[in-house]
Amino acid sequence: MERPNESLPAEKSEGTTTAVVAAAPPRPIDDEARPDVFSSTVQEILFVAVATMAIAMSSLVSGAVTVITAEVQNDLGMTTAQLTWLSGSSSLAAGSFLLFFGRVADLFGRKALFLGSMVLFAVFSLAAGFSQTPLQLDILNGVMGLMSAASVPPGQGMLANIYQRPSKRKNRVFACFSAGNPMGFVFGSVFSGIATQLFNWRASYFLLAIIYVVVVALALFSVPVDPSPTTALSVQAVKKFDVVGTILTIAGIGMFSGALSLGSDAPQGWQTPYVLVLLILGAVLMASFILWENWYSYPLVPMSIWRDRDFSLVITILLLGFLAFPIMSFWIALFMQKIKGYSPLLVAVHMLPMAIGGILVNLIAGLVMHRVSNTLLLAIGATAYVGSFLLMGLQHSTSSYWAFMFPGLLLAVVGADFEFCVANMYVMSALPPAQQSIAGGIFQTVTKLCVTIGMGISTAIYDAVVARGTATGGYFRGDPIEPYSATFLYCAGIAALGIPLCAFLRIGRQGNTGVFQSGFVPSARKLKEKGGPGVLPRKRFMPRSTPGEGCILGLYAVEGAVGVEEPLAISSHFYIYFTATQSPISSQKWYG
């Protein structure tokens, strides 16, 4: 079978650099123009906003729960572990089923799943407001997380298919979309605080239901027809669905995360037999999932993407950040309610800097991602995280809000938004258009799983410090903030691990016309396997040229046939775009 670029002629440059060029020049494509699927800019803006509300679902629930914990605990008589389940059940359900729904969306269609999940989210939000027991509320929060898992992959997949080529417009769109996760938490906290103050905690869930009824109405108008090919239900479709992989990931993530959430409230703590069994079984099933995916012909998650060092590092840095950011937000809100005695409305007001700062940071991210090295943005984000958590962890109960908490909240959203924006753009470039929903599922699974794991670890730390009693000496002598500070210092320690990892990244500017995007160039052997005779060295490089001079438009990770308007394949993961002048690579001046 002929490979995508075997029919294309090759041109060799002086020295060792070789490139494969297309036989005919492509027609110019304006990547900054409004996509043809939209009839107007208003429709485009509304669609991006609706997609952003999809990724905000789970974090809106977590944010809303954060400021009503004290009210719910008093009303329903919940234990500390039940409170953490209130937040963790949504993330657990979302994290367990994201890959499943990502595969469903890619194979059987995205639009129907996207709209249906939002309708059901509104229904279950309404039902949660009528909960009479802790168990009912925890279960309904989990179902809401399930609906979040069903909406994010198709929403992200549609966005990635509409904005396939690197561009400034794509940067702005994905900066807005990425804001949904961290900003959903913040606005969920603010709106929930206001609703609870005016009525009661149940009003928070009713408000979520109303919001998503409006979102569904806007979605019916703005969501375009999804042109992606779908698969009819058949034996072959079931084979491509990877049923075994789906079962392994759902059961593995569910058991492992469930054990972490149950451990602190179990009769014998972490030594309780059923906690240990769930923990071990979950770990074994997740390991089995990795082995299965490496062997199966139609894997749920293509394991080859992890061979890209930058991809693995970006996910790891994001993971470390999300083991801390939602955790800090939960415990700082609980501290304000339990120790400071703030009402839900006052908690919302004190957390308002996160909302305002988050909007500004996302605007900045969308404007600079094509100008500034994204490695630098990740490093700034990781450093901001550490600064934020240290400020939270070193304050006393009587410390000034403006000296500690205010700058800490601002730095937290700098870390969350920079890391989330960069990672989201990079991950969506790691799989072809036909697998964009599963790409979104991978990304979201990491963040949701981190919330559950982080909550389990931090709850264990909190309970251990509480069991020890109030400190009689040292920095926190007689201060009831000590158990909360212990969770914040855990956050600082785990986030700090991401800073040195940034030194090994080689991510350039994303979506910048005229600049080669970050990635690796294959060895001569791999290039020949793709049909070219070249001997490009395995190193990272960028062309020193300007638009209109045959420069490379960008590196974009897709796989598929190469045509006149398609990127030119040079490896199994990466492709290169050319300008209309179609000058050969050999004319470029490369630097590492």
Automatic annotation (TrEMBL):
Ranges of Basic and acidic residues composition bias in the record: 1-14
Keyword rRNA-binding belongs to the record: no
Residue ranges, annotated region (Disordered): 1-28
Membrane topology: Multi-pass membrane protein
MF GO annotations: transmembrane transporter activity
Domain of life: Eukaryota
Pfam assignment, any one: MFS_1
Keyword Ribosomal protein belongs to the record: no
Any single Gene Ontology cellular-component annotation: membrane
Residue ranges crossing the lipid bilayer per the database entry: 45-70, 82-101, 113-131, 143-163, 205-223, 243-262, 274-292, 312-333, 345-369, 375-394, 401-427, 487-507
PROSITE patterns cross-referenced by the UniProt entry: MFS (PS50850)
Subcellular location, record wording: Membrane
Keywords carried by this UniProt record: Membrane, Transmembrane, Transmembrane helix
Domain Major facilitator superfamily (MFS) profile: 47-510
Main location (coarse class): membrane
Designated name of the protein: Putative transporter
Organism: Aspergillus saccharolyticus JOP 1030-1
Organism phylogeny: Eukaryota, Fungi, Dikarya, Ascomycota, Pezizomycotina
